[in-house]
Amino acid sequence: MASRMSEHTARAILSIASEPGDEKLGALIGEHGASQALEMIKSGQVSGAVVKRVREVMESKALEGAMTRLTNCGGRFIIPSDDEWPALLDDLDTSAPVGLWLKGTANLKVVTEKSLAVVGARASTAYGERMASEVGALAGQADVCVVSGAAYGIDAAAHRGALATDGYTIAVLACGVDVAYPAAHAGLLSRISESGLIISEAPPQGKPHKRRFLVRNRLIATLAQSTVVIEAALRSGSLSTANWANALGRDVWGIPGPVTSATSAGVHAGIRDGVMNIVTELCDVTSRFNTEPKIQNDLQDPLQIAVLKIIGTNQASTETLISKITQASDGNIDVHEIHSALAILELRGLVERTATGWRCR
Question: CATH number of the domain at 302-360, out of 3.30.465, 1.10.10, 3.30.1380, 1.10.3470?
Fold first, then answer.
């Protein structure tokens, strides 16, 4: 090959050849870029199972076949340099997706600016499905995108609730975007793609398997500012989504069920252990999305107001705050002044520190 392959093509090949969440591959791409990483793999500078899989893809028509199937289903493949790529995914660092296969009319970056993950049991109760449907509908009415996995039970109810109010919803699959899984949800997935999105790290025709279901949970958590868990047993896979959300500094909510319900035992344990906020009213889980943080009338300090506006309805790291305020003031505001403003806002209960930075209360 006379010239180096484009990043887009290189990432498509690596996406087909690798399994989602491969941190070793993610670190290699992060250091060298996908095109150079692919060259290093091909030339034997990298060891591991991915070497054999890359060669198999390169020596076959796997890439051509994947792109043809993607075109046939009206899909697209995006990478971090594309405008549609949401910055939320950068929080995953080396386990971030190599690329994403998408099907649907919505813009992923735009709809995830306000997004809520709704997860829970497949073997759900009528109560759980009603709660999920109502949460999905409330989110739709508040212009908050619902992110879930299109599985039976809670996932499907949440998607349908959002669709009922003409809201946006995203189905994150553990198989190709052209594969209806479960098959009984082919109609639901079709409706989702008409106004929202179906996304996957697996290439078209990719088959679902246990590990892919577990790894895709991190995407569900990462693509939303908040996660709500509705009915999850003590060993439920939904709890892994909640764990990812907590690790990323996202809000996590739990909707309690009857104290005798084994289906809600994982939620109750999360609330008891302080890793989930208890939902006492369904509007709790959408309230943070409705408006920008309200600035108290007696708050007059321009620097404190600027800090609140930068944090906004999401989160911001201390480094981000310092960088933006320093640039806006042409360097006239000292770093220590910014730290002082944060300390005062924290004392007043207007902001709180998270694992990754600051958020408004």
Answer: 1.10.10
The pLDDT value recorded for residue 298 is 59
Q: Using the predicted structure, report yes or no on whether residue 361 has a pLDDT greater than 80.
A: no
pLDDT tens-digit profile of 333-345? 877 788 878 877 8
Token pair 């997860």 is found at 119
| Closest by Cα among 273, 233, 277 to 252 | 277
Instruction: Give pLDDT tens digits for 287-309.
Output: 878 644 445 555 677 888 888 88
Strand 145-148 vs strand 351-353: parallel, antiparallel, or unpaired?
unpaired
Cα separation, 213 vs 208, in Å, equals 7
Tokens of 142: 């508040």
- Residues with Cβ < 8 Å from 182, sequence gap 6 or more? 150, 151, 152
The owner of tokens 């082919």 is 186
Q: For residue 182, say if its preceding peptide bond is cis, omega within 30 degrees of 0.
A: yes
What is the separation of C-alpha 299 from the centre of its chain, rounded to a whole number of angstroms?
34
Domain covering 103-287 in this structure, CATH number: 3.40.50.450
Q: What percent of the chain has pLDDT over 90?
A: 60
Q: What is the pLDDT of residue 291?
A: 43
